[in-house]
Amino acid sequence: xxxxxxxxxxxxxxxxxxxxxxxxxxxxxxxxxxxxxxxxxxxxxxxxxxxxxxxxxxxxxxxxxxxxxxxxxxxxxxxxxxxxxxxxxxxxxxxxxxxxxxxxxxxxxxxxxxxxxxxxxxxxxxxxxxxxxxxxxxxxxxxxxxxxxxxxxxxxxxxxxxxxxxxxxxxxxxxxxxxxxxxxxxxxxxxxxxxxxxxxxxxxxxxxxxxxxxxxxxxxxxxxxxxxxxxxxxxxxxx
Length: 239
Prior knowledge:
Helix content: 25-40%
Structural class: alpha/beta
Number of helices: 9
Radius of gyration: 17 Å
Distance between the termini: 22 Å
Number of strands: 11
Largest sheet: 9 strands, mixed
């Protein structure tokens, strides 16, 4: 079975919130850390991009009249909180990790430096990318696509806590929704499937980075995804 050598794990903020839906659920973050440890044991290099929907959503803030750039910067700062919580859980189970942030805050994290990130990965350290891209108007999905291109990751593993793949419609609202096994980025963009935003999808398509959308709620799924098991939905450049 093929095992990916270098992966980007995209964790939404909601994935860290667990059942409560907001904040950081310690049991959930510990489970994710344990699963990452299993993947590191395989010899796979792991980088993580964390969202912040469990703490703050820039779009929600701007929809209520807040300046969009300010709302987005607040979201970027919230990703740092999630990254530090994940790092703490990883270090607790003796997995070496580094947090790199696009917005400089030297007291808590390293600044994002591409070559340094790659060096950490080569030394089998888990690198957690926080602070989004460092720019407003870009989502953490776009951050995952950008970092994947920069570090030449083999795949983006998009961990979801509500769905186990990509569906033709919202499976919670439409009982006829069909789960796709494989899609192309063109399909995603054309049909507006909402896997990731259009900027991120285009970036992945242009750089030929495959995406695997799967459920994180089932224990051991990150390892299954890394080993290329048939879970979730694969999105490729051309299918």
